[in-house]
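Exercise 7.
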Amino acid sequence: MARKSNTAKVLDAAEADRKPSSAQQAWLRRGLEQAGGKLPLFDSDGQRINERTIRHCIENGWAEPWFNNPIKPDWLVCKLTEPGRNAVS
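Solution. The predicted structure, written as tokens, is:
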């Protein structure tokens, strides 16, 4: 079994300690009560969710793309993952 370097161990610990920002938490929480954990495309004021917020949540495993939207292919339709639920619960 290969041993991890000290750098790899520090990176693993940093990833485990990573928490969503307040904007990311607000978006992720909205999926808690939705069927299948569907995450909204728009905020409560009708403004589109910032793409950086969505992409950062995907990169951290808190959200995942659900399906491609044929009408708006540039929109990321996502759902909450189990790590995402844990991050905001």
